[in-house]
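Notes on consecutive records. When two proteins share a document, each keeps its own sequence and its own token line. Never mix them. Below: protein one.
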Amino acid sequence: MPADKPNPFHAPLVVGLGELLWDCFPTGRLPGGAPANVAFHVQQLGIPAAVVTRVGTDPLGDELIAYLTEKGLRTDFVQRDPVHSTGTVTATPRPDGHTDYVFLENSAWDFLKGATIPHADAIVFGTLAQRNEKSRRAIYSTLRGGLPKPCLVVYDINLRPPFYQAEWIWDSIAFAQVAKLNDDEARLLAEMLSIPTATPVEVAQRLLERFPQLELVCITRGGHGAIGVTRTETAEVPGLSVSVIDTVGAGDAFTAALIAFRLQRWPLKTTLHYANRIGALVAGRAGAMPDLRGEIAALKAEPGWITFR
């Protein structure tokens, strides 16, 4: 469907803006890319989702588009690049549960063009897709003039060394109502803010002070749970015991749930509780986009789950 036609969905639409790529594990390759992962999990939660990205006119790009289409995501905003190849990243899980990444440079998503999205209730973007000036300008252009109003803008800080600069982070937060980061990223931001001994809550509070449009900062802490801070409330949930397969995409699943529940105006503590559980489900499975429909159906049957409107 052309991007300038009205959106056929009457339900909320969530858009992932940025990289779509193949995560290449020692055991094989699986679809990935943080904004695409978020869109995938939003779709599993029952909210229509789309991806704004760029892939090559190659078999790897064909496969990614086919995969997302099969899973029910909109792909009419996916651009095709006849010059640059579909992105890949070598993902090597470590014994401590973390993963080392080596990204192919000059991938198709590095040359993303700005988009006009006529209907979206929320959009999520990150930092990695900003490593190339062309894609960074395209992301900012889309956020500045390509979105309907109102639209919830979520910045998943998601730092992948060496592909970030402080300037990009501050410019990006200035677009967002919600910022999500992990505890390692909170420590980096504390240093950038010249408060190296700050707690995660203090980092969140400083961001809320610095950026007046920001409404919520969420910090995931792995086995220590998650924290959410607004201008009037601080909530925390404990970590969960998980047999970790790999952590790839776990934070993205948390972000997906955060967006879905924010759109439904869930209470902050309930939002963190279920977002943490959905992130943990991904950590216990291989790859960033595991099928969690059965597990999500079980969560929806719990008394604490608030039925989506």
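Protein two starts on the next line and is unrelated to protein one.
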Amino acid sequence: MHSSSIPLAGRRQPIVRQPLYTEDERQRRDETVWTLVQGVLAPVQFLVFLVSLGLVLRYLATGAGESAALASVVIKTVLLYAIMVTGAIWEKRVFGCYLFARPFFWEDVVSMGVMALHTAYVVALYTGAMTARPLMWLALAAYATYVVNAAQFLLKLRAARLQAAASAGVAA
């Protein structure tokens, strides 16, 4: 049977993806200072994460550096809160809502889990609800979730760049 004789309902329809940004959203993204703030905070937070991860793993492996490991997770959490607050402002400026804008809905959902785990760590640390070793395991759970979330945002950044390149190709 020739492909042209296959009924339309039986053919695979091309996937039409909604663009990440409308033209207005892209313009607002490019004009707001919050894009730069996010662009600075994200790699700083990732660097602090890597240092803290090393300290936490060192503590779990050797028992050495407990104070440094505990404090590093608090520093990472402070940066996480900073990037979440400024990210919500960025989202409001670009998309008109503080969180859960259509293009970043699932990233924001996972971010809430990341925030919950980091917050649980800080609460447990300051209330004494957990000793150092369980706190470190909680930190690793928070960090694993953070890595998933960071990957989501990197994929979204890549999608935005591909969309911009495709738009530039169409315009040319």
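For the record: The radius of gyration is 21 Å.
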